[in-house]
Amino acid sequence: MTEIIKLTFPVTVDGHEYAELNMRRPKVRDRLMVDKADISESESEIRYFSHLCEVSPDIIEELDWSDFVKLREALQAFLVSRPSV
């Protein structure tokens, strides 16, 4: 399952415009991968979103803050959602 996050403020990195990002559901190994790195909490979060959206960290770093908050909200929705029985 993925979530499409439409960016209010598209970014252009290396000549490619990103108007939306596709975030997949996180797995435990995704968090472990980021936690193993000896980096700041902010850099860790950027790498985490980069990994979940399968884009370069450069793209996440260029996002407008309001679009970055959308990534956080999408992640939170994944963490609280439960499959239907």
What does this entry look like structurally?
The chain has 85 residues and is an alpha+beta fold. It has one domain. Helix content is 52%, strand content 25%. The protein is built from 4 helices and 2 strands, in the order ββαααα. Strands 1-2 form a two-stranded antiparallel ribbon. A hairpin with a 2-residue loop joins strand 1 (2-13) and strand 2 (16-24). Helix 1 crosses helix 2. The longest helix has 16 residues, at 65-80. The two termini are 16 Å apart. It holds the Pfam family Phage_TAC_7. This is Phage tail assembly protein.
Write the layout of secondary structure elements.
Blueprint: E1 2-13, E2 16-24, H1 28-36, H2 41-53, H3 57-62, H4 65-80
Antiparallel strand pairs: 1-2
Summarize the structure.
The protein has 85 residues and is of the alpha+beta class. The chain contains 4 helices and 2 strands; from the N terminus they run E-E-H-H-H-H. Strand 1 (2-13) and strand 2 form a beta hairpin.
